[in-house]
Queue: 4 jobs
Job 1
Amino acid sequence: MKKILALLLTLSLALGLCACGGSATEEPAPEETTQTEQTGELEKIVITEPVRGYHWAPVYLAQTLGYFAEEGLEAEFQSVTGTPPHAALFSGDAQFTMVGIESALMVNEGGQGAKVLASTSQKYPYSLIGATGDYTTLESLRGGIVAGGVNTSGGPYSFAMACMNYAGLTPETDVSVITMASTGYAAAIQAGELQAAVSTNPWAAKTLLDNGGVVIVDGTDDAAIADIIGSASYELFVLMTSDEYIASNPETVQKVMNAVVKAMQWMESASPEEIAENLLPLFEGGDEELLYDAQYDKEREITNYTGYHTESGFQAAVNLTKLAGGISAEPNVEQIYDESFLDAAWAALGE
């Protein structure tokens, strides 16, 4: 790696692409180099996402802090709507995707082999918010309507179903759990058509609370969430790639994980202000929201600074995805995770 970095630096100086003082001595190139290494260009990788979201921050920061570039990579983030973002892995249009753990479980049960490389969150970031002061408990939702995100196989819907199940409320009989985009929450609440909704991020929860909402279940409250889903930990947000890509491009996968681990290490000691500032290039116009999310994240310790999953979090994910009808089988950990690249990245960083 040192030799490759030295070669890249020499090429950059020769082409006048950086104004650096001093001189460098060119070292012999490795016997085998890729075309990217020979030209000094960065290898482009495409990472898809359902939406640009704070809880994948370590992956975004790997790009904005220059850690991908240090590994010879350049990431392009693509928000995908209309189709699942992970579909691009199997069409060859993307190399990596950022999704929820539920998607990883469903993809594998569907026969499309994929592995979670790292988890970027460690606590449930969702909250169930009552529309007004009339709805402050789960029991108060009896006879009402609860919004659980955009589809029945997603995390928000699973969370809503888990909350109803915990309270002994039978969907369709005691309460209606419906799908609805969060952009429609405010209007539905104002019209009296919605008694509660699942907020998927701190800013969304703040918006509901500022308009008279009340927290019924705080997913970041260890005791409360452990009662409902059986685990205080829940590694919801993940970085995933296909089994085929791992087999054919293990070096690139390792470079990605090296960069993400560096970003996790940086993020753990960074202030909310520093995190928000460095995320801003990928969140145009999101200054206020980024800072709020970063502060909330630090206070509630939501970010996963190691990337590893927990056994209790995995089992909770399986249970919730089954509850929502996303899967029917009982997968084992090896079918879902490949943390060997994470192991190697941490080992290298520790040297």
Note: The two ends are 14 Å apart (CA to CA).
Job 2
Amino acid sequence: MATAILKRGEGRRFKAGGLWIYDNEIDSVTGEYENGDIVEVCDFNGYFLGRGFFNSHSKIRIRILTRSADEPIDAAFFRARLMRAWNYRKRTVDTGSCRLLFSEADGFPGLVVDKFGDILVVQSLALGIDRFKGMILNLLIEILEKDGVLIRGIYERSDAKVRLKEGMPLHKGFLSAPFETKIQIEENGIKYIVDIENGQKTGFFLDQKYNRRAVGQLCRGLEVLDCFTHTGSFALNAAAGGARRVLGIDASELAIAQARENARLNGFEEIAEFERADVFEYLPALEQAGKQFDLIVLDPPAFTKSSASVKNASRGYREINSRAMRLVREGGFLATCSCSHFMTYELFTKVLALAANDAHKRLRQVEFRTQSPDHPILWAAEESYYLKFYIFEVTAW
């Protein structure tokens, strides 16, 4: 096994509990290796620090698997971690549809597995873990079936561009016998058609499960605007919660078509309507028309995927939140979030305060929430904490 030696004084985040070692922190690598191999990591003085996947194509040069010198990386190693991940989900979430593996937060760097009923959707984003993917999936299915959970099929959605940074081609397709890739799931008592082949990421955003429910509980008798509705999940939770009217908007025609289908599936087509529109253009038009709503949801895609674009992203979040606050009726509600790891809690909170000042509105916090427990936040691994979700009552100054 090759050994990576850190530079003197480097690896501070890793030594504090982090799971990544960057290219500029490594002094040298001794021994023979190929990209994707497991290497040992030692400090500048030879002190053993851990083992992980090495990849010279990536700025994240080493993804740590273990800090133990005596722990072999084999089937038993992965089985134990899979058992821990599955037992954790059974204790914390509805496992009908949930994230079974959340990358580093579950000890599987770069690997995501979502469960939609009896279908698994896999996303493999790191070269090292990709080599173990088949074995991990076989072990996972074995563990689930021993617990009476039968899996009908597996589909891979390893088509995220981040794979290119790992020197890996994009790929998607069946890892089992083919099956219909539009499948029906139920979450919070609401039915959805999930397109695992063509939908965003793995097909459905499971991380907002309980945030959607929290919004729905506020909606009885209200008129609701759901911005960036995607396939209508917040809108349909609002309708299920007793909203008198719901309008969902999204820039994607495909998403809007799916949202309408989901509304029909649940019998909400008379309550929830959907329009294709750019939120940044639509909100000013609503304001100019003097339109207002009792509750507005802002669930935008990540405006920033790197630290370099945080400043521009902050302006975007500030603008849509300020406009939404002006569109909320006195004493109404705003549910707003950011799903970018780089938009930190502190920065997002500051941006919302600035937006409220711009809109001459006062915010009274109802709730602060984050991603659902099947997307666990691992302390010291900052990248695992990405979703910040506020619900506010909005009043005039």
Note: The chain has a mean pLDDT of 96.
Job 3
Amino acid sequence: MKKQKVPIWKNELRAVFLCTALVLTPAAAAASQDSDALSLSERLAALESELSVLEEKTGIQIGELTDDNGAAAGAAAPVSDAGETDPQQFLEAAVDSFNQRRQKAAEYTSEELAGMNEADRVAYYYACVEAEDNFYNRYQNALFSDKNLQYYCHVYRTAMEQQKSACQQYQQDGDGEKFNENWYVGYYNRVVAITGLYDNYGAAFDGDTVETLRADIGLETTLKEELEANRSVDTDTVYSVQTMLNALGYSCGGADGLCGPATVRSVRHFQAMNKMTITGVIDRNLVSKLTEQAKR
């Protein structure tokens, strides 16, 4: 049987579970007496209204209701004893999110996708990126002492924003060419994050899929060009850059004055996180910015 096509708009039904120990406001208590007479949507609306009242009174943002999987939407990321987001749990969550999206993407074969009209195909892409919403919300305020990991987290979430924005823009103007351009920007950034987490942190993504993604965007070719450009930089400057990168949390391994892949990646990450042009190349602008931050 042919699988049902993904609708343009995905409707989510959130299940709400209230603990019996919860102290209700008077309005909520009164409403609960007649709850059997209300529809599910009416009960959800009433509960959301009460949550808003509690937030105003306590000053505590209770957040969204649970989703249909029972997982708290936008739940806070786990925090380690050092006060930062737990790196290992982040890596595991990234892999789980990646796999959820792959599962969603597998609902259609390439032949079925080729037979879709453009609007339905974009809706399918939208549903795929939405499959990672819980991960996106959970790590929106992630904080790592390892700034390379911070970079990959930022890029992963930015990629989701770019792809979702591409779909939303298409729904407004129906411009398929613009959609393809914008979607691919997000695709490229997502692959950068996935391969970076896989290569440098041992994230357990499917290896064959990672290599396919890497080849698809020509990631290694770009890195080789940057390594070649840095060969003319003197060893003292490279050593100084490596020392400052390590001190600022952009770990590039031991400082030895030799610019290898780890140094190039850390340079790129530093440039990205400081809104510089991302070249991966050690130049005067980079040294100046690093020196400025190292003195703080």
Note: The two ends are 63 Å apart (CA to CA).
Job 4
Amino acid sequence: MPISDESREEFALRQKPLRDKIEEYLKKEKDMLAVMKRDSAGVEYTKLLLCEDMIYLATLYINISNMSVQILDTKNNDALNDARKVIYKAIIYLEEIVSNAVDIPYSDLAPKVARIANTPVEKKFYIVKKLGLVIQLLADAFGDNSKWKWTFVEIRGRFAVVAKNLVDMKQASKDYFDPRSPDYDNTVLYVRLIRELMDSSASEYRDKYELNTRRLDDMRMAINFLIANRRIAMILGDNEASEEIKKKALVWKEKMENDAKTGASK
């Protein structure tokens, strides 16, 4: 059914405040990046702020598409693609603070986390929850049959990694078992979420390998997520989970090697 001029005019009118806000925040980002080039003091905290701004921008783009569905009865793919791009930027800002390494010794990660030592675990958890929510909102807006289906495996994987790397695991391993700690509740919930995200990303990369690419690097990534999750289990003294993950990783590694030998992978 053709879209009427009246509907187009209504959509243009109703999206304008959102577009104006988007332009405002994009200009703000540009200005903040310019300041960081001149002065690197506290740059990690600035990137945390930029990450939150990108999350907000993503919600605006998603709202524009939702508005398009409501008024024009069609998704606005341009807005959704813009949302995808700013979500990547949000993740990249976090990666620049704490790295994008899936499995990294916490002794290597500690100096990076120390750069944002004044950011409470509650605030980190809040940012992670917001980012996870907007990623899910975007995936839902695109739909199950979107051409971006497998791209979300990478997005969620990179999200899982920065969520993990933001944590001061040395302190978290103490607060996790200390109900008297003011950070106890947030630490327990945050660490549980990280473990779920790492397990989910391992499974998603395995599915991507099996059902889509047959690329060995996808299977290796799946195994890396398992190993990283085992590292968390070991730090927490969860020996049962550690052994289960170890066994699974060995099975997956054996399958990967067999697929490589038989030519079942690329």
Note: The mean pLDDT is 95.
